[in-house]
Write a structure and sequence with these properties.
Strand 1 and strand 2 form a beta hairpin. This protein has about 90 residues and is an alpha+beta fold. The chain is about 35% helix and about 45% strand.
């Protein structure tokens, strides 16, 4: 009788631990916020856009979001920049 009680208790503990591990590693939705800016001769603008990254772990979503970063100089007097950050 004691053995069956211990076995049931152990099964419950192990089952609970598996649920916690599974929930901790779930993929979730994340928001990537990108600020784009342009500076040129007599003209400049800045805009901030958000897009959702679905079904990724946080570290993978950060890599995907950061892939949008960049800067480019056009015609030696114009600069376009895009900076993205995971929120």
């Amino acid at each position: 009788m004691v053995n069956s009680f211990i076995k049931r208790a152990m099964k419950k503990i192990i089952g609970s631990m598996l649920v916690v591990v599974a929930l901790a590693s779930c993929s979730k939705s994340h928001i990537c916020e990108c600020t784009e800016s342009y500076e040129g001769t007599g003209n400049s603008w800045e805009i901030t856009l958000e897009h959702q990254i679905n079904d990724m772990k946080k570290k993978d979503a950060k890599v995907a979001c950061d892939a949008g970063d960049g800067s480019q100089t056009l015609f030696e007097t114009e600069t376009y920049t895009k900076e993205c950050e995971l929120r």
